[in-house]
Amino acid sequence: MKHQVVQQASSPLTGIALKVISVAIFVGMSTSIKLAGQVPAGQIVFFRSFFAIFPILVFLAFRGELRTAVVTERPFGHIMRGLAGVTAMGFGFFALTQLPLPEAITLNYAQPLLVVVFSALILGENVRAYRWTAVAIGLVGVLIVSWPNLTMFTSPGGVSDKAAMGAVAALVGAALSAIAMLLVRNLVHTERTATIVLWFSLTASVMALFSIPFGWQSLNWEQTALLVTGGFCGGVAQLFMTEAYRHAEASTVAPFEYTSLLLGIVAGYLVFGDLPTLYTLVGGVIVIGAGIFIVWRERRLGIERQAAKKAASPQ
Q: Which residue spans traverse the membrane (predicted)?
């Protein structure tokens, strides 16, 4: 099956604006989910995935891509991506219910660092010393953020088991999310963006239903409204993020993902009264710095590869 190549518009400021909007909506999604209280992670995943489908369908219908969005040559690839993504989402949402909002967001920044690690270990990509150094420094930042919550390294009674479980869940979720990103990298070679997004929402919704035997709970109207809002926000944010990458290069847009820490701190304080700890701030700055360096390094390598191709091409 042949797919048309989507031409990207060169409008960096538009891309950056769309990315920041998507990040803000994702923070709103996390805030809504956290406000819903102690809801089983599988149940949250269902609401997040199922109600995200509706804005995605509207968008695809508007673009005239609804009919072709579900067509794929690689259903197994989508299912594997869905399995990794759903599991990552479940761990991430569990962490969100156990940790302050800024901390949960910051620990998720381990994901792009782990993408580099897994790219080398699983895909055999050539990762040079610069990026390995950035990854190591970034993971030190992650350790700083999570250190107070890892009770196995603290004195008894220092930190609750709830916080420790949340920190571990956040890191496991980040690792699984990194694996999901590698699967997406593989899918984008043959699949449309619309197909990847829609298939994930559909498979995630179905897979989340398998968690019902493990204990879903009855929800009041307020919890239901918050979870539906979270799912809808997730779908809208996904669309804004996708459009951001249509208007600007990934290396231009990606660093603005880290605005979520600032927005998370604001939302955490205004809604939950949470203040970031010194560990979160220091570790967050280290992780963000490492992540931005990796993005910058990827951009430089891309420019060098393009220059090498031009030099090698016959005149």
A: 12-33, 45-62, 83-101, 107-123, 130-151, 163-184, 196-217, 223-241, 253-272, 278-296
